Amino acid sequence: MQQYELTAWLGDDHGLNEDQVDELLRTADEIEGQYPDEDDRDDREAALTAAYRLMVEAPEDLVAELAAERAAARIAERKALVALRQVAVTRIKNGDATEAGFAQQAGVDRMAVRRWLGKR
Prior knowledge:
Layout: H1 3-10, H2 18-34, H3 41-56, H4 59-93, H5 99-106, H6 110-116
């Protein structure tokens, strides 16, 4: 990442001094090495945002917030998976969908669908 890119990303009111900006630039380069692929853009953004926030927020507050976000995401994922399972069981048993078709549409493995149906 170039200095001008980081400066643009930070905006005008970032609250960092020059040394901190330099440190964040080094961190951004490390992050790019950890997540080098174009498909890793969201991961790079999340890591850089966390690195910046660690510089301007209390670490304990940041960790607590991120842990709570992760817990909420896990709960949301579980609820969605349970709902998908119910939809799969109902639609496949009614003949409205195939195992493979539902798996593809729902973005899950066909073997998971078969497990939901008690076939595995």
